[in-house]
Every structure is written in structure tokens, then in C-alpha cells.
Amino acid sequence: MGTDGSKDGSTAAAESDLCTSCGMCCDGTYMAWVRLVPGDDIGRLTVLHPEHTDEGKHFFVQPCAALEGTRCSVYTDRPTVCRSYRCQLLDRTAAGEHSVQRAAELITQARQLADRIKPQMIERTGTTEPAGLIHLYGPLEEHYNSLPEPDAARLADADLLFDITAFRRLIDRHFAKPQQSAPSDIT
Ligand code: SF4
Ligand code: SF4
Predict the structure, then answer these.
(1) Does residue 3 form part of some domain?
(2) Is 48 exposed, middle or buried (0-12, 13-18, 19+ CB in 10 A)?
(3) Which of 44, 48, 121, 183 has its CA 20 to 30 A from that of 58?
(4) Of the bound ligands, which one is closest to the alpha carbon of residue 25?
């Protein structure tokens, strides 16, 4: 989603490079929704397909329609939550807890894992719509439970399930912030 623009030039540039090589907080990898708040100019964000809840809150489902590759196509007009969001990786890099190079390596590692597991999850679940990875965990579980021998099916998919566990641990440890990773955050 991006940087806050208040850093010095080199830090802001490094963070921008990291984000534009990542995009995982926009593509549904680990965030299910983005909430729009009062003050967001929804009219300028029509590509985002906002939805309306019973409580009058607006939000849109990830993957975000404004994401082009790993870049935000409405960057200057992005919603408030996108402007303020910083993943753990950016915070720790800015705090000097690890290097920019290490942060880039973690992004590469996470994206490679996501690219490996997502097609298999789509195939297992029969998903046809563009779907964020975070939306596939539930259907995958339903898929196994629908089979005559769920445990045997899981055993046959041991490599996939191992990769999913490794991926989720990587996201939890280095990217997601607990209060911003759950769909219930916006309801
Ligand atoms: S509007 Fe831009 S920053 Fe916000 S989720 Fe979409 S692509 Fe990401
Ligand atoms: S997950 Fe972090 S590094 Fe990746 S685009 Fe979002 S804020 Fe940037």
C-alpha cells in the first residue's frame, strides 16, 4: 500500500522500491478487505468497486482492482487506509532491525511461495474468479472436508500444506499486523 512520505529521501526511495516490488498488501495475499473512511473521495476511486454494508460503511474486496502488477494505479488518490498502512517489514527496515536487502529477500521469498501455492489452491478449490490468496484458505478446507477420505487427501497434498504453513508463518512474522490482517477488522 505504501509509504507515508515523511521519511528522508533515501529511506522513502528504499521503501518505495520495496513496495513496488511487492504489492502483497493490495493483491489479497494477506488482507481481505480495504475500508473506505469519511473523507475518501470514492468518486475518484470508481475502479475499486466499493461495497456498502448495512451499517453504512464502505469497503472493497481485495485483490484491489487498482493494482497493476505490483503498483497502485491510483497512488495519488489512494484511500486513507492505504496511505497510513505500513507492514511490519517497512517498520522494521526503517527501525534498522534489518537491511533493505534483507527486506527485499523476504519479499522475494514470500512472493515465490505465494506463486507456488496459489495456483494449486485455485485448482483444488475450483475457483474461477480472480481471488486473493487469503480468500482461498476457507474453500481449501471445505474441499478436503468434502472428499470421501479427507485425511488421505491432505496426506497426498502434504507438500502443498507444508508450503501453506510456511507461507502463513512468513506473512505473520514479517508482514501482517494482527489488527489489520483480519476481515473482521472492517465490520
Ligand atoms: S488503492 Fe492502491 S494502495 Fe490501496 S489497495 Fe488498491 S492498489 Fe493498494
Ligand atoms: S506488504 Fe509491505 S512491503 Fe509489501 S507493498 Fe505492502 S507495505 Fe509495501
Answers:
(1) no
(2) buried
(3) 121
(4) 2
